[in-house]
Amino acid sequence: MPAQGQCPRGAYRRILLKLSGEALMGDHSYGISPGVMDSVSQEIAGVHGLGAELGLVVGGGNIFRGVAGAAHGMDRAVADGLGMLATVMNALALQDALARHGVPVRVMSAVEIGKMTEPFVRARALRHLEKGRVVIFAAGTGNPFFTTDTAAALRALEMGAEVLLKATRVDGIYDRDPQYAEGARKFRYLTYDDILARGLRVMDATAISLAREAGLRVVVFNMTVPGNIERAVRGEDVGTLVGGGTQQ
């Protein structure tokens, strides 16, 4: 069994990296910070250079959040549709930034966007990964009422990823929101059932349930710390690891 709060890790070969849209804002109140986008792209380029096969899902919360729109009276399906389009905007910006760092990259959308993206086809996405291309999966699952966390878990399973790396602005999972609760406790390791039983809001229940059923490891870490993306890919002890073993 793993030691207290730990679970064994190792370097990962095929990864699904979920990037927080909010983290792309940097110090801005909305939109994309060019500096943050460049630094994140540079780190992803470094990881790609190690030979890792990378699929990416990027959120859209820096541009539009469907749940927030619904809370203000907008129809939820319409609001989620706008959120999907926001992820496409982020994906295209990330594609451009990665290309400037010499990374071969494709954007595949779950929603038809004409000539700007490729439609998502699983076999084609796998072929891109096998050829060493980074694949950015945009527009979530293509359906309303599902978050980009669920889309990330789904794409990770479809691509046969060894791990789902969730890159956020927080350095792991806490028992309470560390931004507002003094003395919030950080977990180094949790089981899927721990997350669901405690009602921890790091990912939605659908995403965690998908990961649990397939035994997909999830690592939640802070993407704003330089070098953390590579550390997570190398299997180093960053953030919080979510797995199937019993926490001791």
**Structural class computed from helices and strand pairing:** alpha/beta
Number of DSSP-assigned strands: 11
Report, as a whole number of angstroms, the end-to-end distance. 8 Å
* Major pleated sheet: 9 strands, mixed
Anisotropy-based shape = globular
How many whole angstroms does the radius of gyration measure? 17 Å
Strand content: 15-25%
In CATH terms, the superfamily is Acetylglutamate kinase-like
The level 1 CATH classification is: Alpha Beta
Q: Name the average pLDDT.
A: 90
Note poorly predicted spans: 1-8
Helix percent reads 25-40%
CATH architecture: 3-Layer(aba) Sandwich
Fold and architecture overview:
With 248 residues, the protein is of the alpha/beta class. It has a single domain, classed as Carbamate kinase (3-Layer(aba) Sandwich), CATH 3.40.1160.10. Helix content is 37%, strand content 19%. It is built from eight helices and eleven strands. Strands 4-3-5-2-1-6-10-11-9 form a nine-stranded mixed β-sheet, sandwiched between helices. β1, α1 (34-49) and β2 form a beta-alpha-beta unit. It is globular, with a radius of gyration of 17 Å. The N and C termini lie close together (8 Å).
